[in-house]
């Protein structure tokens, strides 16, 4: 496995790989890998000749008061895990390599970013689209892999690909969970022991909420009641929306999503399922 | 030469062409071809295995009071001219094919669109970037060709390619002119006979302005004085800016640009040249 730090070297590898007729699968990450990332690599390996994983803690998607500086990083460990999973290339550029100048042209996620995490993290998804568009172009990937845990991100990226006819397919990976149901996340390391014991309640609450939604009851109050008094973190939002359109009117696929701010970690989780329309 | 109207058919052609190892040159146009377009095709033919020309009067780049409906169109004539020039494929989609739904994600030209034509045509360059990003992705072109007559468009597209690492090169084509100096334009057909006689004065004025700028005099007043009382059209702007940054502070390449609104045609022209900084 090669680790590439410059755009020039990446482009040379892409040219050589494409020239030999191989397809390229891209797994974009911010590193500090967990089984969720590895499951995306496995999927990418099954569908492409070569797999490139980007590891880049993207400053453009962090707000001024967010956790960019203390976002967990461990490139050596990531290299070991990525190689074990069969990754061919890690692309781990510096921020200066990715953003050598201030962007003149901006991409905006628009109304899709007005709900869920987007409403709480202004500019976050614009920053995601900025780096993702760059990575799509730099790797010339045939397929790119994103986990459903970041369901809003996935929906917004799918929209960009559709609106602008990017020549690649977005492939969805199912959320990978701990045995007790907690969604794997790089940020889980920042949970205190007590918070770690509470964290699986998010998924339990969502399961109850899903059942309620399917039965035509209000899932948001079900989730809220279940968590009330049982978690120390503060609920940021609980929302039921259509998926992937993220609209209030639901017919067909829906997402029930939650975000909870614990002391040092903000956790998100969701369930995507089918509900009948009115 | 083939004319392709659907994205599906275009993608099949691109896949086949790329698969055979050929490079693709893209000449994006709104049709009603003139020698300016043909010179871009010639350039594209010299540098690529295959040349695709898009012909699409892009509704997204016309304002509500602009000339979208009466923009000149003649596909049969365009097909003849494009084929004579050696174009391999014309891509001439309908508006529904290009925009099957309202875009969720937007691209904005930002401050680069605050000067020259952008200041007079709000949203114009956002619409240009929208269609150009789509065409770049759909054709998977190695090189795309744009004329310097639309110098602000060229600068903004170059910025998008740089900011987002599109895997293609933008190639600049020199402005092609009538014998009397008038820049070739599809909109010239809408000049009255009297206006057509006045139109070459724009280029003459710019030449005098260029000389003034190089000598350290104010080119804008030189251009304005030269045209004062000699053209019936209304001057929309005369501006000297750096190029391609389009900033007020000039050191090195500069653009002296003009736009004039005649009765039915809005003409633009420019000169790009080297000036010494202060």
The count of β-strands of chain A is 10
| Biggest interface between chains | A-B, 28 and 28 residues
Give me the strand/helix succession of chain A.
Answer: EHEHEHEHEHHEHEHHHEEE
Structural classification of chain A: alpha/beta
CATH topology of the largest domain in chain A: Rossmann fold
Instruction: Indicate the overall shape of chain A.
Output: globular
In short:
Two copies of one chain form a homodimer. Chain A has 278 residues and is α/β, with parallel strands linked by helices.
Element layout with pairings:
The structure is a homodimer of 278-residue chains.
Chain A: E1 2-4, H1 7-19, E2 24-29, H2 35-47, E3 50-55, H3 75-84, E4 89-91, H4 95-98, E5 106-108, H5 116-120, H6 124-139, E6 143-147, H7 151-163, E7 169-173, H8 193-198, H9 200-214, H10 219-227, E8 234-242, E9 252-261, E10 266-275
Parallel strand pairs in A: 1-4, 2-3, 2-6, 3-4, 6-7
Antiparallel strand pairs in A: 8-9, 9-10
Helix pairs in contact in A: 6-7, 9-10
Main features:
homodimer; 278 residues; alpha/beta; Rossmann fold; Pantoate--beta-alanine Ligase, Chain: A,domain 2; 2 domains; six-stranded parallel β-sheet; three-stranded antiparallel β-sheet; 10 helices; 10 strands; ligase (chains A, B)
What does this structure look like?
The structure is a homodimer of 278-residue chains. Helix content of chain A is 37%, strand content 22%. By secondary structure, chain A is of the alpha/beta class. Chain A folds into two domains: 2-173, HUPs (Rossmann fold, 3-Layer(aba) Sandwich), CATH 3.40.50; 186-272, Pantoate--beta-alanine Ligase, Chain: A,domain 2. Chain A has a six-stranded parallel beta sheet with strand order 1-4-3-2-6-7, sandwiched between helices. In chain A, a hairpin with a 4-residue loop joins strand 9 and strand 10. The longest helix of chain A has 16 residues, at 124-139. Chain A is globular, with a radius of gyration of 19 Å. The N and C termini of chain A lie far apart (52 Å). The mean pLDDT of chain A is 97. The A-B interface holds A 7, 11, 14, 103-112, 129-130, 133-134, 137-138, 140, 156, 159-160, 163-167 and B 7, 11, 14, 103-112, 129-130, 133-134, 137-138, 140, 156, 159-160, 163-167. Chains A, B: The active site is at residue 37. Chains A, B: InterPro entries: Cyt_trans-like, Pantoate_ligase, Pantoate_ligase_C, Rossmann-like_a/b/a_fold. Chains A, B: Homodimer. Chains A, B: This is Pantothenate synthetase.
């Amino acid at each position: 496995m090669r680790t590439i730090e410059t755009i020039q070297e990446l482009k040379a590898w892409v040219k050589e790989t494409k020239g030999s007729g191989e397809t390229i699968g891209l797994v974009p990450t911010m590193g500090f890998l967990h089984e969720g990332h590895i499951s995306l690599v496995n999927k990418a390996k099954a569908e492409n000749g070569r797999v490139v994983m980007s590891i880049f803690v993207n400053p453009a998607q962090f707000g001024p008061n967010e956790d960019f500086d203390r976002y967990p990083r461990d490139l050596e460990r990531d290299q070991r895990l990525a190689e074990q999973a069969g990754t061919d290339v890690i692309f781990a550029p510096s921020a200066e390599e990715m953003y050598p100048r201030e962007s003149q042209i901006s991409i905006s996620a628009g109304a899709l970013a007005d709900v869920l995490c987007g409403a709480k993290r202004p500019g976050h998804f614009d920053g995601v689209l900025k780096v993702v568009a760059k990575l799509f172009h730099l790797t010339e990937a045939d397929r790119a892999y994103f986990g459903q845990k970041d369901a809003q991100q996935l929906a917004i990226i799918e929209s960009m690909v559709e609106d602008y006819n990017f020549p690649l397919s977005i492939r969805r990976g199912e959320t990978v969970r701990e045995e007790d149901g907690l969604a794997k996340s790089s940020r889980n390391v920042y949970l205190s022991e007590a918070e770690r014991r509470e964290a699986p309640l998010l998924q339990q609450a969502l399961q109850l909420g899903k059942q309620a939604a399917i039965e035509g009851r209000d899932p948001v109050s079900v989730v809220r009641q279940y968590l009330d008094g049982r978690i120390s973190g503060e609920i940021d939002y609980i929302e039921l929306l259509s998926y992937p359109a993220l609209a209030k009117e639901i017919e067909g696929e829906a997402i029930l999503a939650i975000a909870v701010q614990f002391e040092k970690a903000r956790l998100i989780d969701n369930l995507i399922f089918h509900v009948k329309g009115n």
